[in-house]
Design a protein that fits this description.
The protein is mainly alpha-helical and about 170 residues long. The chain contains eight helices and no strands. Helix 1 crosses helix 5 and helix 4 packs across helix 6. The radius of gyration is 17 Å and the shape is globular.
């Protein structure tokens, strides 16, 4: 129960971090313009968000794997080569920020706790490592990683946070 409560708190903080970083654009993470395709990116974000609705660890990881496959397919189609880990991670980071999943931390802990580690080889293991790496990067994301000054980074995050708070206050009660 304590693990679950801790994961919920971490998910709330992670979701808030994603909201505060929602101003980030592909160029802030060195994502090449030729692979930026908003219609494909929307499908990938949908896969990331769908992870919150799936019950089994393997299915959650497979859903994330579909997102990774779409990114790889986008690289192959747009640049005539498969994506390498250094290509994938910035796109995964960007799309997780934009998707703002509500249970990303819980899902990763759930997978790690209940999924048979002997099955975490090959693509499934790779996908889990990519997801954990992206979450860690997002939690530590600061001005240096976005090539902005500290002042500019804080200003952008603050503006988005103020807007998010005003939208919450303005929302009608059910």
């Amino acid at each position: 129960r304590r693990i679950y409560q801790k994961a919920i708190k971490e998910d709330i903080a992670f979701h808030s971090k994603c909201i505060s970083l929602s101003w980030i654009e592909p160029e802030n993470l060195d994502i090449p313009n030729e692979i930026v395709d908003e219609s494909i990116f929307e499908k990938i974000r949908n896969h990331i968000n769908r992870m919150d609705t799936i019950r089994t660890p393997e299915d959650i990881l497979n859903e994330f794997g579909l997102a990774v496959q779409l990114i790889n397919s986008l690289y192959i189609f747009m640049s005539d080569r498969p994506a390498e880990a250094n290509d994938l991670l910035p796109v995964i980071i960007y799309l997780i920020i934009k998707a703002r999943p509500e249970r990303m931390i819980f899902n990763l802990k759930y997978i790690s706790f209940f999924f048979d580690n002997s099955n975490l080889k090959g693509a499934l293991g790779y996908n889990l490592i990519q997801a954990k790496s992206a979450v860690k990067f997002i939690n530590q994301l600061g001005p240096k990683e976005t090539k902005l000054s500290e002042q500019e980074f804080k200003k952008k995050c603050s503006e988005v946070e103020k807007l998010a708070k005003s939208n919450i206050k303005a929302a009608p009660l059910p």
